[in-house]
Amino acid sequence: MTTNKEMIGRDEIDDLEAILSVTNTDVDAVMHAVNASPDAIFTWDYSRSRPALAKLYEKAKTSQWNATTDLPWDTEVDQEKVVLANMAQNGENGFFSGDVDLAGTPFAKWGDKQWIELGVESQNWTLSQFLHGEQGALICTARIVETVPWIDAKYYAATQVMDEARHVEVFAKYLDDKLSGHYPINAHLRLLLDDIIADSRWDMTYLGMQIMVEGLALAAFGFIHQLTTEPLLKKLLRYVMSDEARHVAFGVLSLKEYYAELTQAEIRERQEFAFEAAVRMRDRFLQQEVWDRMGVNVKEAVKLVMMDETRGMFQSMLFSKIVPNCKKLGLLDAGDGWLRQRFTELGVIQFEDWVDTADEYGSLDEVAKDRAAVAGA
Ligand SMILES: [Fe+2]
Ligand SMILES: [Fe+2]
Question: Considering Cα of 161, then 237, then 256, then 56, what sign does the dihedral take?
């Protein structure tokens, strides 16, 4: 049996020392190479035998948008104002909920100035991580074009490559033009992307990227889209989400077919990979780099974050797309419910019966809705 140590590098999931010991050492590097040697697969079978993927491909062709002309880039963004609006919605300090007693901690002395600065840094950090994650998606999807053996999947993946280039483009532009600073990739996110890319099995790219990373992104974008009062970011996220919903659906539809052929032992490896990815993504949301930049003791800050139950509840919502999609793929209950048990320990199993993305992607296509509205006007 694979141990926690082998999967996630530590025995206890909540081992804070071990979580914080993972840091980025080469923050000034401009390049990062990951060694991988998957086979590039040609197929001579050009028949269109997968109607669900063909339908997705048609949808992708008509829902392309232009990052340069379809978003209101002339919107003035006052980052502090955005933070103050978030604070007004979320309670006094905009970060910790009332569950946590800050007396005796470094935060007890903080005034508006520091809380606003934290909000600004958190936003710079969050959007920076989205940007790096999008580049991960760009690379993974280009990989899938080469490695997936089905022609309908190659066609679809090719449209996703364009989508991801657009996503990298919009997040980079938003950070450069509207926010006040970049962060390097979070160490836990980088470990996860490295793991996905280093695995040469084509279906593991899908599981790591389309199901786990993009499933989480879809929920996270939805969350911020709902919360933010900033109109440019709102529309940007709405459009990115339209694409992401298709991407996750692509993962679900492809893996559903492929997993039906796998043995119990092979499925178990996929379950372990999903668990490892889930833990890495949870670790990344502790935003250790922000605490560091704010000059507070990282361990002390992260401990308080972990004690904040209301915050934890919102954070578990980030898994609200991943869990139903894993269920649809049969990953939750295979092998005596190994993954069900792990997701229960992570506190996210309650989402298992929420709608899966293969069923809902059409309803999330805001680009198509906007086009229909313009055509009908
Ligand atoms: Fe994306
Ligand atoms: Fe995507």
Answer: negative
Ligand 1 centroid to residue 298 C-alpha, Å: 30
CATH superfamily of 81-91+109-376: Ferritin, core subunit, four-helix bundle (1.20.1260.10)
Residue 171 alpha carbon to ligand 1 centre in Å = 10
Distance CA 268, CA 295 (A): 43
Ligand nearest to the CA of 141: 2
Which of 236, 256, 246 is closest to 360 using CA atoms?
246
For the chain, the structural domain boundaries read 81-91+109-376
286 alpha carbon to ligand 2 midpoint, in Å?
A: 23
Sign of CA dihedral 39, 43, 49, 51: positive
Nearest to 224 by CA among 214, 213, 212, 234: 234
Taking the CA of 165 as reference, the closest ligand is 1
Expressed in angstroms and rounded, the spacing between residue 168 Cα and the centre of ligand 1 is 7
Asked if residue 138 has pLDDT above 90, the reply is yes
pTM score, whole prediction: 0.95
